[in-house]
Every structure is written in structure tokens, then in C-alpha cells.
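batch job 7 of whatever, protein = alcohol dehydrogenase
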Amino acid sequence: MKAYHFNSAGEGLRLVELDDLAAGPGQVVIDVKAAGLCHSDLHILKGPGGAWASKRPIILGHEIAGTVRQVGSGVSNVALGDRVAIALVSHPLSEMDPRTAPGLGCDGGYAEQAVFPADFLVKIPPRVSLEQAAVATDSISTAYHAVVTEAGIVSGMRVAIIGLGGLGLSGARIAVLRGATVYGVDIDINSFDAARQQGVTECFTSIADVPRPIDVVVDFAGVGTTTAEAALAVRLGGRVVVVGLGAELATINTVDLVTRNVRLQGSLGSSRDELAQVLGLIADGSLVPVLEEVPFDALTEALDRLDTGTVSGRLFTRPSH
């Protein structure tokens, strides 16, 4: 099978030929029909996230969907030919196991085949495409967890979404579906039309321009200054949820944070149940991911393009045809 190996930042990704995979007890081999491209991979390839990948060499790619190719002993929840997505189990936190995280602790989806524990597989509903399911595993489920579980956004709230890329657009749409009035913030005005199509009321290049009051800010950029500005913009007793990893550090005015009783928290990943809920929203048409396909043999160039910050929506590739 063809796969992209990552060993070090200096080497980057290398397209290699590997033996076909075999399923062990409790495992399932899938033909990877769709794999989403994520900024987290850029943190590993070019940034401070190299230590996240505990296995070397490793196949990156953690947004994965495909069809069951082989079933190991003791597996009863899926069968040959089933369409499945790989859940990135981050919650409950007690269930997190870095050794089983695709593209981090074990080989991921930038390959024609992948092998995973059967417990991580979620069946894809009939009205959801493989490429939609692939990006749902991280970009949409992560946004869902941030908006619904961590931010607690409900009908009637006034919400600001910072960063209108793939994650931010999903988060904005989910907040709209929750009944909130949603404002978008991004330095790239070219993202505004897509945000409005997701139901965003209005967009701005600075959170300082967003009409007050703001009950919740969800920061999908996380470049440091955005988080600090969000903490000042949110109302008394409001909440700021940080998802983006654009910068390692942010300088927060702790006096304002304390005296204004602002809640600041991070949000990571999602649960199997949240992935299932997201797939349900896609199936009934409430969520329509903005997708763009890139050739598998041009994966490195596509990741370079993602690094420029000019991609609207989510990129995906088809390793196995």
C-alpha cells in the first residue's frame, strides 16, 4: 500500500510503499476512502507539535473514513464493507490513550489502509458521504464539543466566533443551530461570505467592533492576541473558550479577568457520542461541510497551501480508490 511517512521536520513527508495491513484481535483494517487535512499536522511537520507524534516513523492524518476491509477476532460491532469513521476519543478524559490516537500514537490516515481498535469505529449514516464523515471526526466534532459542551451555547445567547476557517465555520453553524445570534471575526474578509451562508449575522475584522453584549467568545484562532482581546470583549461573567493553537502564549490581563468574573477555558477534541450527533446533523442536512478535494499524490503541496491560511472550508484527499 502507499502511505506517507513522517520521521522528522527536516525530512518532511515521504511517500513510501508498505505491506498490506492485517487485523489483530479486536482490530479492524479499513480502506481509507477519505482523509481530512488538518492544521494539527502542520504543528507536527513545521511547528512545536513534533513531540506530539510519539511513534517514528509515523503515518500522519487523523480525520479518517473508509470501508471495512478486514475484521479481527472478537469484533462484532462492524462487518466487512461497512462505511465507518474513526472517532478521536478525547472525552471523557479518563479514556484518552495517546497510544491509540491516529497520526500521533499510532499510524493514521495518510495511507491506503489503516488499522484501529474496533471500539473507535462509528458507522456512517446512509445520507453522509465518506468525505463528510472524515472531516466530521475532528474539525466538526471538535467545534461541536467547544460550542455545545464547553461554551454551553443555547438559544438567545450572543456569540462571537474568532477565526472563520474550517473549524470556525463549523462552530459558527453549530452555534446558529443552537439558536444563538452569531458574529464572525477574522482578518481575512474573504471568509465573510461563507460565514454569512452558515447563518452568521455579521462579520468583522476585529472583535472590538462586534456589537455588545457578548455572552460567549469561542476562539478558533488562538494566536494569543485574539484570546486576550476576547477576555476583554466578553460581558461581565461571560465565557471565553479557546480551541485554536495559533500561538503557544497569550498575555491576559488578570485584573480584568478576575474583576469582571470572566471564565477562560480550553477545549480539546470530542467524544464518540458527539461524533455520532454531528453525523446526524450532516445526515438531516443541518450541517453541510464546505469541502475541497486534493490529489493524494499532491498531499505535501496541499498541506503547504493549508499553512498559508488561505483555505476556506476543509481539504480532504482520497488515499484508496
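notes: The helical segments are 39-46, 130-150, 166-177, 192-197, 225-233, 254-259, 272-283, 299-307.
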